[in-house]
Write a sequence for this structure.
């Protein structure tokens, strides 16, 4: 029955996910021979963080005085109602600076429809974590993170909503050889973009719609877990609507002055519009190569990403005066081209971690990102500082597992550039500084 319903969903895209998923779960509960077993697993994690910077703000007003505006509370669980099917999910409260929300982090029906000693095949239906890189699927689990902050070049917190999860279908396969395990993930779903924080080059106040992402990954892991390597591909399309006057400060000021002049000379005459709505599509492709190797007490990891971003914004019609010398002559229009992006970005990091014992570990990381690898210094950037399109970060940190339930972690960053700095906590990019230091600490408790 589970296979029949999943096949119906795949071949009939008009059936809404929100209607199919509850029905699938209920039917499986009644039909499952293991429904009485009630195989529950659950966990909750509380993380409180502190951040301190000498310049700029990170997770709240952190400049020169500590900010405690980072809190994560997650409750996750799973219920295996059939020998091959499991329902799992996580609710997440997250307060990170100016962003505070409660969300369903993931909620999936996971079904393995074929399993043998050589391979297994299955699908996940619902809200799933995007399967790319080495750490995206575990980035919201404090005890599974490799550091306080994951490398921001690839796992930016300020651009988290763009790459965290999707609502749709994920197909997966695992194949076992004498050397290790091959995992293949293919997914397509709708992104959940609650805010636009961190997306470079776009004004605040806009809105996203029709946001979809196709993600594929091939990952190999040795049987002893000492070696992992992966190739990930992401293809995302997002429609973005915004007010052109928010995008171009000079245009906004000029139209406001013209409008005031028109009203002064001829009260009641047609006025300039308060907003100039426009929009278009953002297309982004990413290719990520990932590598991790562990030898005795040392773990080395690195990932490299190429990003290809294009915007497709049509020209917009803007009202103006028929005769600039005579504001009473009325209005006409002219066509204004919207500057489009066509960028090839680059990001990578190198990290080494040393595990002294089960309680103590330390790590070093060099983390780099460029929005445009052909203009790494940002010389061609308009309406924003040149250093807002790159970031170079040297990090040293440590983790103390006080006991199996409590973990204390801290790290110090020396940063040049603000590419992954939140635009919500730092609304005016010209108030930021290129060189800045960041200290972050988290205390986590699981139960």
């Amino acid at each position: 029955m589970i296979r029949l319903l999943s096949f119906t969903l795949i071949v009939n895209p008009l059936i809404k996910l929100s209607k199919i998923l509850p029905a699938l779960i209920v039917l499986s509960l009644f039909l499952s021979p293991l429904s009485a077993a009630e195989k529950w697993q659950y966990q909750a994690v509380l993380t409180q963080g502190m951040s301190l910077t000498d310049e700029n703000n990170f997770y709240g007003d952190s400049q020169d005085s500590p900010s405690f505006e980072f809190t994560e509370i997650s409750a996750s669980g799973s219920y295996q109602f059939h020998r091959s099917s499991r329902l799992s999910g996580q609710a997440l409260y997250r307060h990170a600076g100016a962003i505070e929300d409660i969300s369903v982090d993931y909620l999936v029906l996971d079904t393995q429809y074929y399993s043998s000693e050589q391979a297994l095949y299955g699908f996940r239906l619902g809200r799933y974590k995007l399967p790319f890189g080495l750490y995206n699927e575990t980035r919201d689990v404090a005890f599974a993170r490799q550091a306080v902050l994951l490398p921001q070049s690839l796992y930016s917190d300020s651009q988290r909503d763009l790459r965290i999860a999707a609502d749709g279908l994920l197909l997966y396969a695992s194949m076992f050889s004498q050397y290790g395990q091959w995992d293949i993930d293919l997914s397509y779903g709708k992104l959940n973009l609650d805010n636009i924080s961190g997306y470079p080059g776009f004004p605040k106040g806009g809105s996203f719609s029709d946001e979809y992402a196709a993600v594929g990954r091939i990952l190999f892991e040795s049987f002893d877990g000492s070696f992992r390597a992966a190739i990930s591909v992401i293809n995302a399309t997002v429609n973005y609507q915004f007010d052109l006057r928010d995008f171009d400060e000079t245009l906004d000021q000029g139209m406001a002055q013209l409008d005031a002049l028109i009203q002064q000379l001829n009260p009641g005459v047609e006025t300039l519009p308060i907003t100039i709505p426009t929009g278009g599509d953002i297309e982004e492709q990413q290719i990520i190569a990932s590598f991790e190797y562990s030898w005795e007490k040392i773990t080395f990891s690195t990932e490299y990403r190429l990003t290809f971003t294009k915007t497709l914004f049509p020209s917009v019609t803007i009202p103006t005066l028929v005769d600039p010398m005579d504001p009473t002559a009325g209005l006409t229009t002219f066509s204004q081209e919207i500057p489009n992006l066509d960028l090839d970005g680059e990001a990578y990091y190198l990290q080494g971690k040393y595990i002294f014992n089960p309680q103590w570990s330390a790590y070093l990381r060099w983390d780099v990102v460029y929005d445009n690898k052909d203009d790494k210094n940002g010389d061609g950037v308009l309406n924003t500082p040149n250093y807002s399109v790159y970031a170079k970060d040297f990090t040293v940190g440590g983790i103390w597992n006080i006991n199996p339930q409590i973990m204390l972690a801290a790290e110090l960053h020396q940063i040049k550039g603000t590419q992954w700095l939140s635009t919500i906590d730092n609304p005016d990019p010209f108030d930021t500084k290129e060189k800045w230091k960041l200290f972050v600490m988290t205390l986590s408790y699981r139960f």
About this structure: The radius of gyration is 25 Å. Residues 1-37 have pLDDT under 50 and may be disordered.
